[in-house]
């Protein structure tokens, strides 16, 4: 599989300003702080971490909903990070986003039909084609077109997310950034929506970046998973390898918090001390050292880079994990 998307050293720093009349920049919130990863065509990359670790900002910076401070976003071989105007508008056909909150992301004054038609109107799809596509897409996401004259508040959370998914499909995108699409839903509904998304991925040859704060949510749908901490990727790898053989202490802690049905697979619970440090004043060296049970002197001063940690496609950024040479990753 070739790379559809390549993100290189992406940064998004939000300036902190002080002073009412002549505000001066006194610092920055380093929401995304040098993130690199790739997404192959047709795969799902899970992007995981606690809230505030920069996952959503990364998703929005890829789409240019917020302008990256630094770095490259290579989509189909072209750096799209500085796209503006018509180029950016065209790109938004190809790359869509599905938001966490189906309540907030659907206009309450529009009917389902109008909501799904909106992107097609904006791109000039003829009326007849629009109407056919609305019926087709409602069917595809498991809602009857019989409901298309109703308003969002008449639907359940899961149904509203299906409407959001239908809208995201209207312009035949290739890449969909799914920003916690099931986090607001009941657990039983989460599985249904994730299964639907998997079916749609196969049917429409879609590529997903699937953002979640929970490693159990992305396990099923992801081909590879990247774990973020304080604006950086600390571990990335093939899903089965990463879950069976997590190398970074932060990944180990996240995995140990997942309730495991099979007692033989149960891991010792690793409880993280302390709160997530502020992204405006992250710790020096390894940003995780203030909470890492294995931290040593070097961790406080030297920043660990991602390196190959197994013979598969698996990298982690930790001083205590041995580099494995001869990786094909
Ligand atoms: Fe922990 Fe040090 Fe590894 Fe960071 S580099 S995760 S502090 S052991
Ligand atoms: Mg978020």
TrEMBL record:
It comes from the Bacteria. GO terms for biological process: peptide transport; transmembrane transport. Residues 5-255 form the ABC transporter domain. Keywords: ATP-binding, Nucleotide-binding, Transport. SUPFAM superfamilies: P-loop containing nucleoside triphosphate hydrolases. The keyword Nucleotide-binding applies. One of its GO terms (molecular function) is ATP binding. The keyword Nuclease does not apply. Belongs to the ABC transporter superfamily. PANTHER family: D,D-DIPEPTIDE TRANSPORT ATP-BINDING PROTEIN DDPF-RELATED (PTHR43776:SF7), TRANSPORT ATP-BINDING PROTEIN (PTHR43776). This is Peptide ABC transporter substrate-binding protein. It comes from Pontibacillus marinus BH030004 = DSM 16465.
